[in-house]
Design brief:
The complex is a heterodimer of chains A (about 160) and B (about 290). Chain A has about 160 residues and is an alpha+beta fold. Chain A has 2 domains: about 1-75, Beta-grasp domain (Ubiquitin-like (UB roll)), CATH 3.10.20; about 85-160, [2Fe-2S]-binding domain (DNA polymerase, domain 1). Chain A is built from 5 helices and 7 strands; from the N terminus they run E-E-H-E-E-E-E-E-H-H-H-H. In chain A, the strands form 2 sheets. Chain A has a 5-stranded mixed β-sheet, covered by helices on one side. The longest helix of chain A has 19 residues, at about 145-160. The N and C termini of chain A lie far apart (about 45 Å). Chain B is of the alpha+beta class. Chain B has 2 domains: about 50-165, 2-Layer Sandwich (Uridine Diphospho-n-acetylenolpyruvylglucosamine Reductase, domain 3); about 175-290, Enolase-like, domain 1 (2-Layer Sandwich), CATH 3.30.390. Chain B is built from 11 helices and 14 strands. Chain B has helices at about 10-20, 75, 80-85, 85-95, 100-105, 105-115, 120-125, 145, 225-230, 235-250, 260-280, and strands at about 5, 25, 45, 55-60, 65-70, 130-135, 140-145, 150, 155, 160-165, 175-180, 190-200, 205-215, 220. A 5-stranded antiparallel β-sheet of chain B has the order 4-5-10-6-7. A 4-stranded antiparallel β-sheet of chain B has the order 11-12-13-14, sandwiched between helices. Chain B is globular. Classes of the chains: A alpha+beta (about 160), B alpha+beta (about 290). The complex binds flavin-adenine dinucleotide and FE2/S2 (inorganic) cluster (2 copies). One FE2/S2 (inorganic) cluster binds near residues 102, 106, 107, 138 and 139 of chain A. Flavin-adenine dinucleotide sits at the interface of chains B and A.
Chain lengths: ~160, ~290
């Protein structure tokens, strides 16, 4: 089946088996291996991507449902600066600075989910951030450094938007 | 290869369903895609996710709120009309899955699966909701209690679609409560859930009591014996105890991976008792009888 969609700000056309999982098409056909498979059942959020700006589990989406939509994966979260340098999203930068990652399997999903959540709810506080990230499990860090990073990213973003 | 039909209107979807009763109806996929990779792909899919006519939320001519079956939980959480008519439904949606599931999971999908742990079903039972089904022969409305027929079975015919859910005009004037007991707030499948609603008469007595329970039998159900104890009664401590006893006759819980039957019985009784005690405490009429 022929599909057209936006992927990380580029138009894509793809001819694929429609019922395949978006996660597999991203990893195997498009070689975007940033999206991880944790559980394969919608529980862990490691496969999170943004569809039309909303975090979803790509292990539960048949690829045909992308047709006409806008997808962002972790490969498309950072922006390019004017000199071609990589500008990390505030959430990515905070995860780096705070050490909010260990094995890294959960990290792409957490970065995307948090980035989208903060776009929608820029004033989310620590308690609300915990709720918003409830669908992203981490087996390594114990969450504390992740949440610390997200609280910091939220205030950085609020500061940036005031400038 | 799976044949993929993406109707652009409800009429097209109904025709597709008539022509292909053996195709999978797919909404957000949060039920059907779990484990799908281990099963053969369906021969065909009728993809109704985001179909505009299934996403409408509006009051009908008689003032009843009609919620499209295609509304996602994110949708429900953001709609002021739903919050006004059915606060318990909003509360249930808030605890379903997490952001990712709320973005995709739909009301129609919760009904279509009709799991004993489907969280919106006790709410729809306690609000006397009706389900709109459409097939080649037209539309029929079923009370949600008749729609759920057993363990993951419904009255939906092979050529029908779930179109909407309709709430009675009086739902906004009902006192509603929603309680979900699980291992954690997000991403957790219920051990027991309760939705209850009631009116109060001027003399403080309860009227039109409705209790929906989930995870305590093969299907979500109304606690009719308990409702009968409460109907027309003044809420007080002794009534709470009698209702908590009565509910044990309404349910048939089992032991499974999530909980045990005796825990479920004790918890259901406690939820009922606390609700009635809450009603007693919030009564505006002084209760001289107890
Ligand atoms: C991680 C995770 C957590 C979850 N947590 C919860 C929870 O807390 N509480 C809860 O209740 N559920 C939960 N679920 C289950 C699921 O998200 C819900 O049941 C959801 O409402 C299903 O909706 P859907 O649109 O994704 O359905 P789909 O998977 O697309 O469809 C489900 C069924 O309904 C049928 N169907 C859907 N729409 C229609 C229609 N309009 N007409 C006819 N048939 C239709 C389909 O054919 C299929 O049989 C969870 C699932 C996952 C993966
Ligand atoms: S791999 Fe998709 S949610 Fe776990
Ligand atoms: S860093 Fe290993 S799962 Fe989170």
């Amino acid at each position: 089946m022929k599909l057209r969609f936006r992927l990380n700000d580029e138009d894509k056309e793809l001819d694929v088996e429609p019922f395949r999982r978006l996660l597999d098409v991203l990893r195997e056909d498009l070689h975007l291996t940033g999206s991880k498979e944790g559980c394969g059942e919608g529980e862990c959020g490691a496969c999170t991507v943004l569809i039309d700006g909303a975090p979803v589990n790509s292990c539960l989406v048949p690829v045909a449902q992308l047709d006409g939509h806008d997808i962002r994966t972790i490969e498309g979260l950072a922006r390019q600066g004017t000199d071609g340098e990589v500008l990390l999203d505030e959430v990515q930068q905070a995860l780096v600075s705070f050490g909010g990652t260990q094995c890294g399997i959960c990290t792409p999903g957490i970065a995307l989910c948090a980035s989208a959540a903060l776009t929608r709810e820029p004033n989310a506080d620590r308690a609300r951030l915990r709720e918003l990230l409830a669908g992203n499990l981490c087996r390594c860090t114990g969450y504390q450094l992740i949440i610390d990073a997200l609280v910091d990213a939220a205030s950085t973003r609020r500061g940036n938007s005031k400038r | 290869m799976t044949d993929w039909i993406r109707p652009t209107s409800l009429a097209e979807a109904v025709d597709a369903r008539r022509d292909h009763p053996d195709y999978l109806v797919l909404a957000g996929g949060t039920d059907v895609m779990v484990g799908a990779i281990d099963r053969p792909a369906p021969i065909g899919v009728i993809d109704i996710f985001g179909l505009p006519e299934l996403c409408v939320c509006e009051h009908d001519d008689e003032g009843r709120l009609r919620l499209g079956a295609g509304m996602s939980y994110a949708h429900l959480l953001g709609d002021a009309r739903v919050a006004a008519a059915a606060p318990a439904l909003v509360e249930s949606a808030r605890e379903i899955g997490a952001l990712q599931i709320q973005a995709r999971g739909t009301l129609g999908g919760n009904l279509g699966t009709c799991s004993p742990v489907g969280d919106t079903l006790p709410v729809l039972l306690a609000l006397d909701a009706e389900i709109e089904l459409r097939g080649p022969d037209g539309t029929r409305w079923l009370p949600v209690d008749d729609f759920c027929t057993g363990y993951r079975t419904t009255a939906l015919a092979a050529d029908e679609l779930i179109v909407s859910v309709r709430l009675p005009v009086d739902s906004s004037s009902r006192e509603q409560v929603w309680r979900k007991v699980g291992t954690r707030r997000a991403q957790s499948i219920s051990k027991v859930m309760l939705c209850a609603s009631t009116h109060r008469r001027d003399d403080g007595r309860l009227a039109d009591v409705r209790i929906g329970l989930g995870a305590i039998a093969a299907r979500p159900l109304r606690a009719r014996a308990t409702e009968a104890v409460l109907e027309g009664a003044l809420p007080d401590g002794p009534l709470a105890a009698r209702a908590a006893q009565a509910v044990l006759n309404d349910i048939a819980p089992i032991d499974d991976v999530r909980s045990r039957a005796d825990y479920r019985r004790a918890t259901t009784a406690r939820l009922i008792r606390r609700w009635v005690l809450h009603l007693a405490q919030t009564s505006t009429t002084t209760n001289t009888g107890s």
